Amino acid sequence: MVTFLLGLNFLLMIVLPIVLGRWIALRRKVSWGLFGAGAVGFVLSQVGHLPFNWLILQRLEWVGPGNLVIYSVFLGLSAGSFEGAARYLTFRFWGKEARSWGGGLMVGAGHGGIEAILLGVLGLINFTILLGLKEGHFQGILASVPADQLYLVDKQISDLFGVPPSMALLGAVERVFALLLHLSASLMVMQAFIRRQLRWLGAGILWHAILDGTLVYIVFTWGAVPAEVVLGGLSVFSLGIIFWLRQPEPVEPELEPLPELRPLTPLDISGESLERSKYSG
Hints:
Layout: H1 2-28, H2 33-59, H3 68-94, H4 101-134, H5 139-143, H6 150-161, H7 170-194, H8 199-221, H9 224-244, H10 271-277
């Protein structure tokens, strides 16, 4: 049962963002290109975000979990700033047509969706390899592992397949909550263009930073499960932001009716008129 649920967990992480994108495309009549724009924005954010975190946390060691409050604030602001800037650039350059509620949702679905898809793919690959090792397959992989590190492989197998069934789908549930964050933050950043007020960019960054920083603090203090419970509660606020910023989609202007055609005057094609026409030129 646990093996089935774990496999389902990683598949859901891949499929759910696609289902969300399809629902938005059908209900709000927006292009899948905006999903791609949001996905590109997320990937570009990580190109800067991950090296920056490595530089501050590991290379320079300016911040560490020894001071948990500063550590949590740093990680929250780091994620919020890089991803918020990426959202802004997405709406500014690659998603210029996203100026409606549906368009903002599609960008957010792409931004958070590609994160879920990448995590799901990596998780599914790891799950497949560890399942094969557990069942006695992939002996070539084991042969390449140093003998003094084989216990690490055994630990990974026992940790993954030893989870209770109630925890096996936790990754997919977390991605649902995270998607709500990405949708709400994307809609907030989009307001900077709709309302022409840059403070909405700051609001989107701050909202993302609050959620990420809070979760880091709770994970280190109480563990992963309480963090997921808090994330679920905060996701209610994300959902509220999404519907608070809801607006009707732009309506296509109706074309003015063409003027009524007048009946054509019948032509005189009598023999006499034809005879006269020979000398009219």
